[in-house]
Design a protein that fits this description.
GO molecular function: N-acetylmuramoyl-L-alanine amidase activity
CATH architecture of the largest domain: 3-Layer(aba) Sandwich
Number of strands: 15
Number of helices: 11
Enzyme class: hydrolase
Order of helices and strands: HEHEHEEHHHEHEHHEEEHEEEEHEE
Protein name: N-acetylmuramoyl-L-alanine amidase
Bound molecules: zinc ion
Number of domains: 2
Helix content: 25-40%
Shape: elongated
Keywords: Hydrolase
Catalytic activity: Hydrolyzes the link between N-acetylmuramoyl residues and L-amino acid residues in certain cell-wall glycopeptides
């Protein structure tokens, strides 16, 4: 049995070795997040990532520096990479900051930059050497010694361009595929990257010290989404590698021509992703970075919609974006744009709430006139417009938002009473 499986493995021709490194491990927990330790999140993502490559790329050999919760010294990780003649080394980590509002992904390449804010990250990620037996290994390299720096730069130059290329693909993938916030590609002096004889990056998945991001990254959805983002970057990088090596990948065959999709007439598709009695502002973390959000008040509830399209395929894409953000119960809702509300019903745009009573045409209304003031629970709500169809209500909303009321939203009325 053993012989057979070894043989069948050997028959797969590999032309690329990727070494994936889950940061920290064992007695070195890494950063302590709001929901989990850095070492656990990093390992989980690495195992998912490795399995995804193994499944889709039989020509890639995946080497893990660790597959369990064990302690590894930083030089051991480099040694594993060099012994396996890696074509790419990827170290996975999570960020942490004393400022709990810090969020976003960032990917590092090795570089000896001047003192700047990234030194805080490298200091933290390098600090594990104090748990190691032989700290001298790292002290041999002195970033202030010009000769050592020149020797390093010569070695690093060979891999730097490709390291930056992969780092750039990772950050773009986080933004374009997952809607995450990117802090960009940076360079810093990381022990775990310095000795690698291959393009090498260190990915910080996000800040586990931040409540929202830390909870997300510890969740199944967050870990899966992060893995998929890095995998998409890997896939593209591998394709470029193959192209340089003269290999044509199978998915580059001409694709069948798609028939142009017919837009739905007079209809609009939106993704309903949240229904709650709480009113969140557009920039609120509860909306998980979704930007194109519309909020509709329905009685005592607020309904949150994402996107607006008349193409079914686009609506499906929007739905998967929202689901990846963790709104698993989201669904597509179809609106009849030209359907008129019956009787006295109408749509109005709520653009301001204040404890002060303003007259119509107040300067604070930024030029909006015929404003309806409705007293509610000791506060005054100010509404603009009266529309009978959603189509025109949406146009009114856009006009109001352009006046600077970015958090305005549509409310259904019966006459002059909110429903
Ligand atoms: Zn780390």
């Amino acid at each position: 049995m053993v012989l057979f499986s070894t043989l069948s493995f050997a028959q797969k021709k590999t032309n690329f070795v990727v070494v994936i490194d889950a940061g920290h491990g064992g007695k070195d927990a890494g950063a302590r997040g709001v929901a989990d330790l850095e070492k656990n999140i990093a390992l989980d993502v690495v195992l998912r990532f490795g399995a995804m490559i193994e499944k889709n790329h039989p020509d890639v050999k995946v080497v893990y520096t660790r597959k369990t919760d064990v302690f590894l010294e930083l030089w051991e990780r480099t040694q594993i990479s060099n012994n396996n003649k890696a074509n790419l080394f990827i170290s996975i980590h999570c960020n942490s900051a004393t400022n709990s509002s810090a969020t976003g992904t960032e990917t590092f390449v090795m570089g000896l930059n001047k003192m700047n804010q990234t030194d805080e990250v490298s200091r933290r990620e390098n600090s594990v050497v104090f748990l190691e037996k032989d700290q001298e290994k790292y002290e041999k390299f002195n970033p202030n010694d010009p000769e050592a720096v020149i020797a390093f730069e010569i070695m690093n130059a060979a891999y730097k361009e490709q390291s930056i290329r992969f780092a750039d693909l990772v950050e773009k993938s986080f933004v374009n595929k997952q809607g995450r916030k990117s802090r960009g590609v940076k360079q810093a002096n990381f022990h775990v990257l310095r000795g690698n004889a291959s393009p090498s990056v260190l990915v910080e998945l996000g800040f586990i010290s931040n409540y929202e991001e830390g909870t997300y990254l510890a969740s199944d959805a967050g870990k899966q989404a992060s893995t998929e983002a890095i995998y998409a970057a890997f896939k593209e990088y591998k394709k470029e590698f193959d192209r340089r090596s003269g290999i044509v990948s199978t998915d580059e065959k001409p694709k069948p021509v798609k028939v142009a999709e017919k837009p739905l007439e007079g209809k609009s598709l939106k993704v309903k992703f949240l229904e709650t009695t709480l009113k969140y502002s557009i920039s609120s973390p509860q909306l998980k970075g979704l930007t194109d959000v519309e909020i509709v008040q329905d009685g005592s509830k607020y309904v949150y919609y994402y996107g607006n399209t008349n193409l079914q395929s686009r609506a499906d894409e929007l739905l998967s974006v929202v689901k990846r953000k963790g709104f698993t119960k989201a669904s597509i809702v179809e609106f009849d744009l030209n359907k008129r509300l019956d009787g006295q019903k109408n749509y109005r745009v709520l653009f301001m709430t204040s404890n002060k009573k303003y007259k119509d045409r107040d300067d604070r209304f930024n030029g909006l006139s015929n404003v309806l003031r409705v007293k509610s629970g000791g506060m005054f709500n100010y509404y603009f417009g009266t529309d009978k169809t959603l189509d025109s209500a949406q146009k009114t909303l856009e006009a109001v938002q352009k006046k600077g009321f970015r958090n305005a939203f549509v409310v259904t009325f019966n006459g002059e009473e909110p429903l």
